[in-house]
Amino acid sequence: MSWVRSWPTEVPLNLPSSRGTRTAVRADAVLQAPEAGLPVLFVEVDNCTESPEVLAAKFEKYRTYFRLKTKTAQGLEVPVWRSRYAATGRDGHPPVAVVFNPGTRMGPEALKNRMNTVLQLSRQVWSGTYQWHGTYGAGEERDGYYDHADAIPVLFTTLERLQTGGPHGAVWRRCGHGQWETLPDALANPQDHEAWAVREEVRRRQRDAEREERQQAWAAERERWAQQPNPAPAPEPEPCERCGLAITGQQGHLYDDAPPEDGRHCPTCRTDLRQQPMTLRQALFGKRPGNR
Question: Closest by alpha carbon to 13, among 30, 25, 5?
Fold first, then answer.
């Protein structure tokens, strides 16, 4: 339970100007409840009497104030709001909650349309920036995260929901989340860099395991090759009786027109011998078997 002094109302958030200071925006209330896990929450009460455009414009004024920097005594640059309020412990600017109080001025459908209009008009303030982080192989999808460093967590609720469900119930609608949640869940950033880092660590371990598996398979294959006996060398071909070269002829050369093998001469010599003119003896008695 928070202290009464942690709930000031009509709080001006000032910007420096040439005339001293000017009010960027005036928060309807500022809740500080660190004992409840809520260091600071800026609250806007919307009685549905202003246009959605006027309400949405307030978020940009909040961001102008949240972006304002100052320097500490040690020379460190910090946001001005940190000189008044505790750090939120989350990425981005402090959260801003809008409590819609339509009363009898509009029905549920009109209130829903008003919320959706304000949500769309303020998208640049609360949506953050998506950062891609490459691809991881042919079959894997691209992955990334939302950078909320310059984003304001914008929460919607209604006075009726707070009265019936209490502030600790699932009565908060974080712009961009799409469902009613408890306050801690609504303030969380499930698609931020931390969540991406968890997914990246899972991918890294999987890649390491696959690489280790491949290395083990390669090592086993090399071991299998090392244990296989070396094949016996092919016997050297017999030399040609006529020229002394290999009887099989030159390696890689085709001898399609050479005479049939005779077991004594290479293809070149067999061809030469066939082309030599016959002697008288060969004509009378025929060539000897070795000269065919």
Answer: 25
Which residue in 29, 181, 149, 2 sits closest to 97, CA to CA? 29
Interhelix angle for 52-67 vs 108-121, to 10°? 40
CA 254 – CA 248 distance, rounded (Å): 10
Q: How confident is the model at residue 120 (pLDDT cuts 50, 70, 90)?
A: very high
Model pLDDT for residues 143-179, shown as the tens digit of each residue: 888 888 899 999 999 999 999 999 899 999 999 998 9
Write down the pTM of the prediction.
Answer: 0.66
Contact (Cβ atoms closer than 8 angstroms) between residue 173 and residue 186:
yes
Q: Is 201 helix (H, G, I), strand (E, B) or coil?
A: helix
Sign of the torsion angle spanned by Cα atoms 120, 122, 123, 126: negative
Bridge pairing between strands 38-46 and 144-147: unpaired
Within the chain, residue ranges assigned H as helices are 52-67, 108-121, 123-126, 159-165, 183-187, 193-227, 267-275, 280-285
Q: What is the pLDDT of residues 39-77, one digit of tens each?
A: 999 999 999 999 999 999 999 999 999 999 988 888 889
Pairing mode, strands 20-33 and 96-100? unpaired
CA distance 51 to 54: 5
Residue 260 Ramachandran class (φ > 0 left, ψ -120 to 50 alpha, else beta): beta
What length does the chain have?
Answer: 292
